[in-house]
């Protein structure tokens, strides 16, 4: 009878701990889940920047490469609203000019054909911040992330303990637990 009472008390405390830690760490779970999905697909989405690409033809006559001055570049940036963001320009190839702008945007102009490609980079405020947290930005975050990891262990163990019977560890829950361990191991070793 005492063992049964101890088991009930253990399950009761497991529910309380499981519930409270789950609520406390739910924000962290969402941060790591969202940033993890984005990081898994970084070949198709840049988590830090949105890139808008615009190709167009320049209508005015351009100076030859040797005569190109900063003032000529600034005139090309006026229609884009980027004249105040100029940082530098150079010619990586004959008749090809690349202009660097503040914030990572750029303009590439083929002088002979007057074909221009403007790439505007815009920071993704939420996704870039979540990804930064996922990459661990500093020692203060390391401490909180370690606390989070310990909390996940406690949440997991309390979740295993609190359910008894055919849905618990010795029933369906045990099968699901085993599958949750075996599947990652298969990916690791196969």
TrEMBL record:
Pfam family, one: PepSY_TM_like_2
Swiss-Prot/TrEMBL keywords: Membrane, Transmembrane, Transmembrane helix
Protein's recorded name: PepSY domain-containing protein
Transmembrane segments: 21-39, 140-162, 169-189
Species, as recorded: Bacteroides cellulosilyticus CL02T12C19
């Amino acid at each position: 009878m005492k063992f049964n009472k101890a088991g009930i008390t253990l399950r009761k405390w497991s529910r309380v701990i499981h519930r409270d830690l789950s609520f406390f760490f739910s924000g962290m779970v969402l941060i790591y889940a969202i940033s993890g999905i984005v990081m898994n697909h970084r070949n198709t989405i840049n988590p830090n920047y949105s890139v808008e690409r615009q190709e167009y033809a320049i209508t005015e006559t351009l100076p030859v490469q040797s005569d190109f001055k900063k003032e000529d570049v600034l005139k090309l940036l006026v229609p884009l609203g980027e004249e105040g963001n100029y940082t530098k320009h150079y010619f990586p190839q004959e008749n090809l000019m690349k202009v660097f702008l503040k914030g990572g945007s750029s303009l590439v102009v083929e002088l002979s054909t007057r074909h221009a490609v403007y790439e505007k980079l815009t920071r993704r405020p939420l996704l870039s911040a979540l990804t930064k947290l996922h990459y661990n930005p500093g020692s203060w975050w390391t401490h909180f992330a370690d606390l989070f990891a310990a909390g996940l262990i406690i949440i997991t163990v309390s979740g295993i303990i609190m359910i008894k019977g055919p849905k618990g560890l010795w029933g369906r829950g045990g099968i699901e637990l085993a599958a949750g361990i075996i599947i990652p191991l298969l990916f690791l070793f196969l």
